[in-house]
Design a protein that fits this description.
This protein is of the alpha/beta class. The chain has one domain (about 75-270, about 285-340): 3-Layer(aba) Sandwich (Glycerol-3-phosphate (1)-acyltransferase), CATH 3.40.1130. The protein contains twelve helices and 13 strands. The protein has helices at about 20-50, 60-70, 85, 90-95, 125-130, 140, 160-165, 175-185, 200, 220-225, 255-265, 310-330; strands at about 5, 10-15, 100-105, 115-120, 145-150, 170-175, 190-195, 210, 230-235, 245, 270-275, 290-295, 345. Strand 5, helix 7 and strand 6 form a beta-alpha-beta unit. Helix 1 (about 20-50) crosses helix 2. The radius of gyration is 21 Å and the shape is globular. It is a multi-pass membrane protein. One of its GO terms (biological process) is triglyceride biosynthetic process. This is Acyltransferase. GO terms for molecular function: 2-acylglycerol O-acyltransferase activity; diacylglycerol O-acyltransferase activity.
Length: about 350
């Protein structure tokens, strides 16, 4: 039974039991590190860089600035994944927290390159990180010969120290230069993973919703055509279920404010919440709800350096159809009602 206490009169806290198994404590600790990295580590690194300049350790920031200048282009040249860190046992604890499972539906020939569209973005793309950044769910075993590169906003690669941290996990900038480089570097065996809806889609990440920001998203389709990389749709069931979000329906003042800030800053600011570390009522830790990331079959793409609008639109429509078919085929396996369909925005 859960111990109960009161908060602000009406709100009651459901406290975690005192005797929690060790493996569950480890899972919570690793997910806490991951949430902290997403929410606070970048500004903390920026603060630390400037703070050190005014202390006796000023040389640390100066030497890092020199290194940063020399190494500036590395994120746009495939990054610098550290395989040892990606394979650490601690990521298994993160996988088991939810848990996260990668589901394979078709073979991907390593003789080709792939642009993989990840849907939906969710709040913190937990499924994408677990499956395609670290080695916790068996991507390398399921798709031997493929190396995955997850895309992230270029803004984060301009934060001192933090840029090196995220590159360790195989993250690279999501602009055209950064995303296309791995596809140009190797004739096969490269999988660039794009959370297509990006920051704006995070604002629609409410439990029980299946809104996919895709109707006007054609940049990744064009890149696949220019590079001759096959397209692979991915749908991550449960991605929107691990956090609650304050109601921000389109047309409300909150949504208007969030969209304005997103346009200015380049990042979205969803007001999300879930559970805490020692209690289950409120906090920024995600819920323990399963995430099943289903990788669809590849869509063959012929290299076309200068696709016409008609060719681009046709392939974009084919991709949306394949994503919809993937969702329809697997939705009932993961608790989605038969009468629920994807809503392309």
């Amino acid at each position: 039974a859960l111990a109960r206490g009161s908060l602000c009169g009406n709100m009651k806290l459901d406290f975690a039991p005192l005797h929690v198994p060790r493996h569950r404590r480890l899972q919570t600790a690793v997910v806490l590190i991951w949430v902290f990295s997403f929410l606070a580590l970048a500004p903390l690194c920026i603060f630390l860089f400037f703070f050190l300049l005014f202390t006796q350790y000023w040389l640390v920031s100066v030497l890092y600035a020199i290194w940063w200048f020399i190494d500036y282009d590395t994120p746009w040249r495939g990054g610098r994944r550290v395989h040892f860190l990606c394979g650490l046992k601690l990521w298994d604890h993160m996988r088991d927290y939810f848990p996260v499972k990668l589901v394979k539906t078709a073979e991907l020939d390593p003789k080709h390159n792939y642009v993989m569209g990840f849907h939906p973005h969710g709040v913190l793309v937990a499924g994408a990180f677990s499956n395609f950044c670290v080695y916790a769910t068996g991507f390398r075993q399921m798709f031997p010969g493929l190396t995955s590169y997850m895309l992230m906003l270029p803004l984060w690669f301009r934060a001192p120290f933090f840029r090196d941290y995220i590159m360790c996990a195989g993250l690279i900038p999501s602009d055209k230069e950064g995303a296309s480089y791995p596809l140009q570097l190797h004739p096969g065996g490269t999988a660039v993973v794009i959370a297509v809806g990006g920051a704006p889609e995070a604002l629609d990440a409410h439990p029980g919703t299946f809104n996919v920001l895709l109707a006007k998203k054609k940049g990744f389709i064009k890149m696949a055509m220019e590079q001759g990389a096959h397209l692979v749709p991915i749908f991550s069931f449960g991605e929107n279920e691990v956090f609650d979000q304050v109601d921000n329906s389109r047309g409300t003042w909150l949504r208007w404010t969030q969209e304005k800030l997103q346009g200015i800053m380049g990042i979205s600011l969803p007001l999300f919440h879930a559970r805490g570390i020692f209690q289950y009522s409120f906090g920024l830790m995600p819920y323990r709800k399963p995430i099943h990331t289903v990788v669809g079959r590849p869509i063959r793409v012929e290299k076309n350096p200068k696709p016409t609008s008609e060719e681009l639109n046709a392939l974009h429509q084919l991709y949306m159809d394949e994503l919809s078919n993937l969702f329809e085929k697997h939705k009932t396996n993961y608790g989605v009602e038969k009468d629920v369909h994807l809503n392309f925005v």
